[in-house]
Structures are given as C-alpha cells and as structure tokens.
Amino acid sequence: MRDLVHNIGAVQVVGPAVLSATNTSAAIDLAEFGSAALIINTGAIAGSGDFTAKLQDSGDGSTGWADVAAGDLIGTFPASLAADSVVKIGYAGNKRYVRTVITKNSGTSVAVGAVLVKGNPRHAPVA
Fold it and tell me: What is the DSSP letter of 77?
C-alpha cells in the first residue's frame, strides 16, 4: 500500500470550537504544494443558526483577498452549513495563499473545525 501521510501537509484552519460570530482564518501558504482540499467538520448548530463557508485566495497573503471563483473550486459549498456534517472542497486556483471565511448569517452558534490538506508536494517526504 502507498504511503499517504508523507505526501500531504495538514494545516488546522479553524480549531474545533463553537463559533458565535464570523471567523476568518489566517492565510495558508500553498508554496511547495500542487493541490489543496478544505475539510470542514460541523457539530451542533444552536438557535436556528445559519452559517456559510467560503474560500478566498490572494497572491501575497496580506492584500487582494477575493472569493475563489467557482471554476477554481472542485465541488461546491452548501448554501448553509448543516449540523453533524462534513464538507470537502478542492482548490484548483493558482494563487499562493488561501483562507477560509465562515460567516454567521443568523442564529446563535455552530460547532465547527476545519483542516486544509495540501497535496502533490514538490519535495517528499513531507514532515
């Protein structure tokens, strides 16, 4: 069987937490990797919460942040995050940096965590 663990990088984007406000992650550097996938894991949603998620990209990681175009996403984000679910979205863009934005539209809170998995490393094994 092939080894996956030495061929991916994993970055915690949103630490498992109960969010009651919009959360914008730090910039994640994709240098030295040729692909990326965002995995969002939700738990309970309280108070009829309506939360949405999106991915943004930037060339320098500090300015020019814009929502990733639909053509640069593999898969689609749900209209709203559902309780006790997993969302998996691939990034096919060419910008060096990405970040997530989980937006509170209404309600009380959502339990959520997110990880960005970076793949196709230029140099393996990945530490």
Answer: -
